[in-house]
Design a protein that fits this description.
mainly alpha; f41 fragment of flagellin, N-terminal domain; two-stranded antiparallel ribbon; rod-shaped; single chain
Amino acid sequence: MTSILTNVAAMAALQTLRGISNNLQDTQNRVSSGYRVEKAADNAAYWSIATTMRSDNKALSAVSDALGLGAAKVDTAYTAMDNAIDVVSEIKSKIVAATEKGVDKTKIQEEISQLQAQLMSISQSASFSGENWVAGNTTKSVVSTFVRDGNGNVSVKTTDYVLDSSSSGNVLFGMTTTGTIDSSTGIIGTSNGTIGSIYTMNITSFGQPEIAMALTAIEAGLEAMTKAASQLGSISNRIELQENFVAALGDSIDSGVGRLVDADMEEESSRLTALQTQQQLAIQSLSIANSSAQNVLTLFRS
């Protein structure tokens, strides 16, 4: 039935056009933003998960920076310890030379004194970002990872390295309460009885028994220093592995979030083309429906 008061066909065509226009607007938004879920209204569950994971990923980025800082501290300590091993090995060779009869021990001691001063210089210089891992007696920590448990609780895990300033410990010297190097403690600072420490021993008046004791003390010191360098190398390797893991974990989170909220651009492009075609057809349908009133007018004219 044709009515001059109510154009049902036009109303239906208009409703269809509105629906197509809304769908077209949504599709255009997805194409322009690249997101299938851009706001909570699009999909509250996916949006919430994605927002939380993005926040966690930012925390992982901070952990990665902290790991880089920790790696620099450990590498600095390892380099210092490795150089100190070379210096103590040189002291050892000088003392071995002093075992020969008729050798001028005073001249040899002058060379040893320079090497001992170098050990102090190494210890004082082995600081990065205000932390010295080859001189001290505290516990050093390196951020290792960021963890969110099943209950949503967040925590930051650390790797600890305890500085031991004993003669068989893992530092060259200890540290006083005022923050200065304690040259009477540590692997090369702790006294070995009558011959003194590796840092203070003076072979000028040493006889063969004292020289033998000095060599024994140096061997023990080198063993402790080698062990300490090995520990630092292990920590450095662990930090590197953790850095790689954190980077891979961050990529996985990005990928997972993308699967939840990213738009499939091929699908959206196809949908956009289809909706644009539907919109054109709907406009034509509305035009045809609106022309029915003109047809009624034509009947009266005839």
